[in-house]
Amino acid sequence: MPSDAAILSGLAAAAVVSSLFVRWRNSRSLPVPPGPKPLPFVGNIRDLDPRELWVSSAKWAQQYGDIVYTHLFGKGIIFLNSIEVVNDLMDKRAALYSDKPNLIMVNELVGAGNMVVFTNYGDRARRQRRLMSHTLSAHHVPRQYEAVELEARGMIGRFIEGGDAFHHLRRYSVGVILRIVYGIEMRDDDGSLRFLQVEEETADALSNEIMAGGGVWAVDMMPWLRHLPSWLPGAGFKRKAAEWKKGFDELREGPWEALKANISAGKAPPSFCYELLTQPGKTITEQDQIDIKDTANSMYSASMDTSLTIMSHFLLAMMDHPEVVKKAQAELDSLLGPGPGRMPTLLDKPKLPYVTAVFEETLRYAVPVPLALPHCLLEDDEYNGMHLPKGSIIFPNIWNLVRDERVYPDAHTFDPERFVEKGDGTYSTKQRDPRQYVFGFGRRRCPGSHLGEASVWFLVASMLATLDIKKPLDENGNVIEPHIEFTNSIFRTPSEFKVSVTPRPKAKTALQNSAPVKVASV
């Protein structure tokens, strides 16, 4: 006669099997979420316009609901359009929603699969994120304040001298990460500006070609296409990929080889790579070197477009809202001295609540990556009576989250006051914090969010302290209004526009007399 333990084990097994059967049966009978009507076989190829897909997703949400289902050649593409749905799926069910789709075009043919943003959620992704924590965790980021402030001071100096504002911003964004990751300081006279050029070229290819329309190519739906000869008609995607791969290879190899040369010459300054490669008492294996190299490339490749997008919107907002500039400069002058008396530092942040509110509203208003980079559903899932098929590509629509009128009243207006603490207990700052959304979700949240926040906040504070930002005038004294277009498929980067950036009275003196802060880990 079976024992009680055996009976209980049998009942438990039967319950599990029954549960799985019911789930399987329900998944077969439950409908997928609603969405625009697809064409036979090819699916929603007409609907997935690569330009401002987040806007299309938001419009679909008004018609179909917070979860919208589309497909390409039978591959599910699902858009999540509300804070509640994103929290329920991306955070509470992170184990199911933290993978990345196996996009053959970007991962294999272009060769970007080593970047953590595209890596499947497995050992390699975990190793990269573990290495990143040595530099990018909240505990370690203060060690990077000096590098951030050095690059920002160089950028302010270039603004004072004149020149192209957007070039200055791009150089700052890439310069910060090159200095921190590889110990490389970009100079005008040693060829290191080539790193900036390669970053610009590969970022443009990734945003406007490779990942356009969600980054899904026919070869991703029909993997056998990768075996077609490149010369064959219809295999133009392989010829394009081969050209793009050259840029991504240089992006990965260029700064790494420069770092190794500096180490060999005994002149490598402290950096993320140097510290990991020269750990006392540790033998660095070939796999260690690959992991460090790939992790460094992941950090470097993500450096420019997010910051450039945020700061472009910052310039636009300051041009449109001189009252915000005036109020922020008054707060800065009260702390630093008028004109300013000195440069701000990152340690000044707690004493500058209005400047921080300007930063937070810029982050929300700019929403640099409005449609989060794709995730992949690991298993069939059910939600609110809907079937979400295994393998579907998942896009949280961050644009719609930070334009939610329930959370951000008058959401299409730039208003830093929404982030100024009132002290009356009427709302929770955390619930309104745009950093909950713009840096990603769940286990794939951007590991560089703390450094990104520090570098952009300091740029906002430094520019407001030292520069006047206004709409330019033509030769007749008439205001030139900015003409803006959005053509980037990943980043909500406005087209370049004319802006007047001039130094405040004591900016040059403050820059010359201020030293960057040095902070150990906290």
From TrEMBL:
Residues annotated as binding heme: 446
GO molecular function, one term: monooxygenase activity
Superkingdom in the source lineage: Eukaryota
Keywords: Heme, Iron, Membrane, Metal-binding, Monooxygenase, Oxidoreductase, Transmembrane, Transmembrane helix
Pathway: Secondary metabolite biosynthesis
PROSITE patterns named in the record: CYTOCHROME_P450
GO cellular component, one term: membrane
Subcellular location: Membrane
InterPro entries registered for this protein in UniProt: Cyt_P450, Cyt_P450_CS, Cyt_P450_E_grp-I, Cyt_P450_sf, Cytochrome_P450_fung
Entry cofactors: heme
Primary location recorded for the protein, binned into one broad class: membrane
One Pfam family hit: p450
Family: Belongs to the cytochrome P450 family.
Designated name of the protein: Cytochrome P450
Lineage: Eukaryota, Fungi, Dikarya, Basidiomycota, Agaricomycotina
